[in-house]
DNA sequence: GATGAATGAGTCTTCATTCAT
DNA sequence: AATGAATGAAGACTCATTCAT
């Protein structure tokens, strides 16, 4: 019966949807509660019946983003059997993002940058996210390689691929160009083949 | 009458000194003008006689930081002849930083994260800085390798080393641990040897 | 399912019980509806089915407090026959209160202080309470003295004893010490003996 | 050159003047910063350049009131030599107040009632004020009696007179009538004569 | 060059209350 | 009778900036 323009019926969903857009594009500090409520079409007090604080909303958003992000990542990866294809699937995810209007890099990293206290729960969320991505790299992307080498060597490989990935995201955000992604993908491929060939042992 | 060691004579220096500390540790948005003037001991109006705006102060700080940073980087690098030693000199610079109380990653990247408009002059400064670091990698660190390979291959090498470096900084900030630095250094070394051995041709 | 000792079955009772605690300890203005409903375990809308407004709740609480207070006072007084003992019974009631954690003086007086409009029904309730206490002093405490003196002298005695009592309560709250109670009790005793001896006639 | 309607040139004075009126008449909680700034004609931010918080303003007001109050009290007392006249001078001060539009009792007591935490600096101010009044009673009002009796007896007398005084103020506020003042003054006089006649030794 | 005072617009959050179910 | 959701108005306070001296 309710058909408002933002198309999401439940207020808390509309709030998160607005926060998602605004926190990601403008940053946490630069986005005020006023903007969030005006764009989500709820009253200020209504906002606070759904979220105890602005920070709590940020965390709700990050949790949702985490869920969807991991879901999308694993789904894309699972469409390939070959490890190399899986690695490149990770990067093509970013290719799509980077082309969107107003690319802003990794939402998690950006949020962490605005919470200087490393004990902040937001920082913990970001750490958890990054750790989970690392696990996806280990268990879903590179798992085929695990039996081929010593555990510490495998861990080293995982860390390398993962660091290349993160560095590329940052640099792509910084330069607003593709080459960091390309470069990291190429290096990742070479690294893979070297580890596979046993050159690193 | 006040002669503590950190008190600098000229107001504008004291302001930048305070901004340096506060912008880096707390972030740009989370640091108010009031805190800056109170910690630098100047009157509010005096601040605005030295800097036209908060953003201008941020830029002045970044320019100073850029200068000192490149200076320190090139100096450390120039103390070694061997390329491998030079690469490891880059990383040891971060080892020192990461151990300081309240490590906050790369000040430039963090600032860029708070200026969402990619056309902002602050963003330009950050891009310039990162580009300049890339040039240091190419001209001061890896220059010995340049004649050994095709230009595009050399560029690829530079990008790889540089991306590994940036990724490590981010992840060290995120996890507040050493391993990303270690991992990136190791991978850098291997990458070097592979490129040197011509395996990548 | 929740069966803690302080949980009362009927919602309106639980609400008054919470209000009693909170209004008394924190004051009327400083206590929000939210805290009252959260501590009484009822929904916000349920609160308003039982009480038309926050002020109405305050009045309900004061009425209950009035009832219990007078009841307790008269009961304590009635346990003694001697007028002096009865007077001291009034004060020992406060001795017990003053030793409780977070003594806050007279709940009625404190409420009156937060309702600046003297025409407010809350103010009327407080006036009624104080008048009733005065009547207890006249009819239950000092009644033995009434036939001994002219009516206006008796009224004077009643007012004196009662004012000493109220002054002591205020000062005990202010200084958080016993001496005002002690002092007022002593003076009350002396006053009694003087009036009895006819010195005041 | 500046002749604004509120006639006080300096903003901080205008703010305290407004606060004085509003805090006293409406109470602390019921008076918002917005009302204070609108009635004193300063911008919100200007308020906060003069006072760090609402509570700090309340304290500034109480300090000013304390000063003026003690000043006025001692001056009135000093106009009489006879102890009985001095005591009655204390009470006539209240007679004047009580007749003003919107009598609200003792500003200090009312403030204390709104700060439930007895460790609050406001509470400390109120305690200090009341203690100072007690000292005025001892040193300026009853000092003539001091050599006539044992120290503890004198203290007892002081406490009694002072408690009668405070009780009268509260009750006058409560009933909005004169009789508590009359009654307390009469009792004070009798108490004086009894102590003087040595009846209490 | 330096400064204390002033400011409009904004910050996040809470208020007591009402509505639809 | 009970409730989860919604709200306009107000709460205290901070923002980066400007002005008169």
From TrEMBL, chains A, B, C, D:
Gene Ontology molecular function, alphabetical: DNA binding
InterPro entries (UniProt xref): Homeodomain-like_sf, HTH_TetR, Tet_transcr_reg_TetR-rel_C_sf, TetR_C
Keyword vocabulary terms for this entry: DNA-binding, Transcription, Transcription regulation
One Pfam family from the record: TetR_N
Record feature DNA-binding region, as residue ranges: 32-51
Every HTH tetR-type domain range: 9-69
The protein's name in its UniProt record: Transcriptional regulator, TetR family
Organism this protein belongs to: Vreelandella aquamarina
